[in-house]
Amino acid sequence: MSINIEKLENVTHALKDGDEVIIARCPACAEEDRDNLGNHLIVFPDGRFGCVVNPGEDDDSSEHRKRIFALVGEKKSQGRRPEQRFQPKIRMIAVPKREQMLGHAPKAPLAKPSDEAREH
Is the pTM for the entire model greater than 0.70? Predict the structure, then answer.
């Protein structure tokens, strides 16, 4: 059982705890005209998924996940492990927690000017 990524809207890739995850519009929220930014659904490489608005284990959250699966789920994977579905669209780098908290990515080291550049 897995999520059919092709049925999702606003699909983006992100890093979470060192793993690439998929962030997309939650189809269950979209049915209720919510998740207009398209970032409530998270799909993990192992196939688990959830909605950030309904993250718990209560009955409402369970029903929400069941609705997500009813809308975009696949009962059979086509012989592929879920990890194989995640093909990075861009080269992603891990950013240390310190830089994440500061709100910027690490800077590339500055190249020293060559002798030729100094003469001009």
Answer: no
